Amino acid sequence: MISHVHVGIRDLPRAQSFYAPLMAALGHVLKFSEKGWAGWKPKDADRPLFLIGAPYNKEAATPGNGQMIALLAPDRKTVDACHAAALAHGGSSEGAPGLRPQYHPNYYGAYFRDPDGNKLCVCCHRPEPV
Questions:
Q1: What would the pLDDT profile of 20-54 be if each residue is shown by its tens digit?
Q2: 11 falls within a domain
Q3: What is the residue range of 115's domain?
Q4: 98 to each of 28, 41, 64, 73, how far by Cα in Å?
């Protein structure tokens, strides 16, 4: 359904320091990093791509009010690891990892902002393994 997502950032080295551990925890690999932008992909596919870089119009990157990107995790342990990695690398929490039964009984998610203020979620829709 999605080819790629681009998140506007102001400082590529700082943003890469934030996103690299998050993408690694999700099992994604760096596809490229060049000329002011970088992109990750799943290990076994070329798409979807998660891209970071300065806005094309050369204006300052600013987070959109009401915008959020939710990244799918294979399990709840990965959600926890991503939230911890985000906070350890300059992010701020917008909601600790936990069940959100108001969405559905097995929704387990964590919310945070990157150093530029972009809001992200990492979530798992699977029940806890027995």
A1: 999 999 999 999 999 899 999 999 999 999 999 99
A2: yes
A3: 4-54+67-124
A4: 23, 26, 25, 13
